[in-house]
Amino acid sequence: DHRALQRLLCKLVFLFAGSEITILSGFWAQADFTTGEAANLAIVTDAKSPGISVGASLLLQPDGRRCFGASEDLANAIERRFTDSETGSSLEIETPDGSCVVLFMRILPPPALLVLGAGLDAEPLLRIAGELGWRCTVCDHRPAYIESRRLPERCAALCFPAGELERHVSLDSVDVAVVMSHHLASDREYLRQLAASGIGYIGLLGPRGRRDRLLGELGDAGEALQGRLHGPAGIDLGGRGPGPIAVSIVAEMQQYLSIRASATAGRRARR
Question: Which of the residues 59, 137, 184, 230 could staple to 156 if both were Cys, CB 3.0 to 4.6 A apart?
Fold first, then answer.
């Protein structure tokens, strides 16, 4: 029947989606990730009462909750079980509407990209990252560069001296960074501060000779960048100009993020 088909489809979706979800269409769009915190998601996968719909769901974040096809009583009953439910676990819950099986998951926030330098070549990089749903921030010490750029709608644009990066940006919340001010002294200051962060991917535009000069001038900070600094940034895909270069950099960052996610999942599976 129709309800049996609904249950089957839900179970198939959950089976192939996995327990931790980076993007779940619809729910991801409803979540607010401006704080960088994950959202908790609960979905009814089976119901023994006609008063509960398979697929009814609850999205819970620090700023409140959003219900989709769930009554107030059902949502309250589900929310009470978030604290004692592991990600990926299914629990049978008794509610005023009847009993149901609920799958608990997390929707991870999209990656946070920090672009240091707002030249013309930053536009396609930020535009592509924005299309992927990444949280983007661009910084520059030159007001004219910030004011004249056409940036994605949700891209934060900040103007301050390069040496004040740590005062204006929480580097702990950044996943990937690209240094591209094309100004030697500013790039050196950016790299010096990024070296003390835990950011695993730091891209640098410019030729290898320029990269080596910067690393030499940074001394111990340059040593701290080993294994994290990618310069020249980007996978060699061929092509010239800001557009192809932006595609190659985003591809390299996505590769890094995928490897990091796989490593994290592997460690969790071995626990």
Answer: 137
Residue 205's alpha-carbon distances to 34, 62, 171, 257, in angstroms, are: 28, 38, 20, 19
CB-based contact 71:78 (threshold 8 Å): no
CA angle 128, 261, 266 (to 5 degrees): 165
Burial of 115-141, coded b for 16+ CB within 10 Å and e otherwise, reads bbbbbebbbbbbbbbbeebbbbbbbbb
Per-residue pLDDT tens over the stretch 146-205: 999 888 888 999 999 999 999 999 999 999 999 999 999 999 999 999 999 999 999 999
Whole-angstrom distance, CA of residue 202 vs CA of residue 115: 10
User: To which residue do tokens 């960074």 refer?
Assistant: 177
Residue 84: phi and psi, rounded to 5, are -110, 25
How far apart are alpha carbons 52 and 71 in whole angstroms? 8
Q: What is the pTM (predicted TM-score) of this model?
A: 0.75
Closest CA relative to residue 170, chosen from 114, 107, 229, 228: 114
* pLDDT tens digits along 115-162: 999 999 999 999 999 998 899 999 999 999 999 988 888 899 999 999
Task: Output DSSP code: residue 118.
Answer: -
Nearest to 90 by CA among 54, 62, 38, 51: 54
- Residue labelled with tokens 């001038």: 217
CA distances from 228 to 114, 199, 249 (A): 15, 8, 14
Distance CA 79, CA 93 (A): 11
Eight-state DSSP code of residue 200: S
